[in-house]
Design goal:
Number of strands: 2
Distance between the termini: 28 Å
CATH topology of the largest domain: Na+/H+ antiporter like fold
Strand order of the largest sheet: 1-2
Radius of gyration: 20 Å
Number of helices: 15
Helix content: over 70%
């Protein structure tokens, strides 16, 4: 463990020296490759360190973002093929992967834990959309960027929240049930929230968005559920490969969106990051203490906090593409996603390390 910690420190020192040298000699064109290698080195180091393993994927995402910011043309179009056309198929693969990790038994949690499911869904689809609307209004972002913030707030949680619930020693069964129910409810709830809130910024077609989400969410998740029902435990290699495929798909989606919205990101990126931090941390805080006020168990409070604070950025990106506004509406999901992984991992590990036993 000590050797691995020393490796991480060494990576930081080397990169600090390189960046200082680049700035001193004003060779800013080299800064991009250095940052990409830095985040990849951290990803490798974290992957082999038990304490920080949960951050390795986030480091890969940050490397992908740096790559697309410095070399955007390579991630916008190859020949005559526009890479943004890959987003929906990639999202469908992610949703199929989500479906293969679920079973129809997960929905029994609605009966076994009705209070947790109801409270979780209400918190998730009320706190985050209205927070998103309020932040967009207060920061006075351009209309389509504002719509993207409302969109990420109106999206359901993803598989990442289940992983964080496991790490936080929360109620994993409740987390899985909430993710499943919220995901399948999203084709109705998300377009409705977008119509009510984001409609103040850009025109929203409820029915078109609902149909798009059924295509991107319901169908691939149901196929995954059916696949899991008939082939669970029979195709072991697929169980091992699907998480890798899903993570790769998420990285590609974020890279493509970042490249497409590079100019907007450079001009308002700092404020968008601040908005992402406020939005996300407020979700954790309000989700957790809202459950505490209702005298719910500690594990359930942790679970709902993570479910409320973490949204499915990939799904939000797919919706933005279907709206034809991937470089603007899709920018908030691309920024919020990596931050949610950093904060979610940090919160989960903090809860895990607490000495209290519940």
């Amino acid at each position: 463990m000590k050797n691995r910690s020393n490796l991480i420190i060494t990576v930081f020192v080397i990169v600090f020296v390189l960046i200082s040298t680049v700035i001193f000699f004003k060779k800013f064109d080299l800064l991009g490759p250095i940052l990409v290698l830095f985040f990849l080195a951290l990803a490798f180091s974290f992957r082999h360190t038990e304490r920080y393993r949960g951050f390795s994927f986030t480091m890969i995402i940050l490397a992908a973002i740096c790559l697309s910011l410095y070399y955007p043309k390579n991630f916008i179009q190859i020949g005559s093929f526009e890479l943004e056309l890959l987003i929906v198929p990639l999202l469908q693969i992610i949703m199929f992967g989500m479906g293969t990790t679920m079973s129809f038994k997960d929905f029994y949690g609605i009966i076994k834990m009705p209070k947790g499911v109801i409270v979780g869904l209400i918190c998730q689809f009320s706190i985050m959309p209205f927070l998103g609307f309020s932040l967009a209004y207060l920061f006075k972002f351009p209309p389509e960027i504002s719509a993207g913030i409302v969109l990420i707030g109106s999206s359901p949680s993803g598989l990442a929240s289940n992983v964080m619930a496991y790490l936080a020693r929360a109620n994993l069964a409740l987390s899985v049930t909430l993710t499943a129910v919220a995901t399948l409810s999203a084709p109705i709830i998300t377009p409705l929230l977008m119509k009510l809130l984001a409609g103040a910024f850009v025109p929203i077609d409820f029915f078109d968005m609902a149909i798009s989400m059924i295509k991107m969410v319901i169908l691939p998740v149901l196929v995954g559920l059916i696949f899991n029902y008939f082939f669970y435990g029979k195709i072991i290699w697929l169980d091992k490969v699907m998480p890798i495929i899903s993570m790769t798909a998420i990285a590609l989606i974020i890279t493509i969106i970042t490249a497409a919205g590079r100019d907007s990101l450079i001009s308002i990126g700092f404020f968008l990051i601040i908005a992402a931090i406020i939005h996300n941390l407020s979700g954790y805080f309000l989700g957790y203490w809202g459950c505490k006020i209702l005298k719910m168990k500690e594990q359930d409070c942790r679970t709902i906090a993570l479910e409320v604070g973490m949204q499915n950025g990939g799904l939000a990106s797919g919706i933005a593409l279907e709206m034809g506004k991937i470089s603007t509406v899709g920018l908030a999901p691309a920024v919020f996603g990596p931050w949610m992984n950093i904060s979610g991992s940090s919160l989960a590990y903090w809860w895990r390390e607490k000495n209290r036993v519940f």
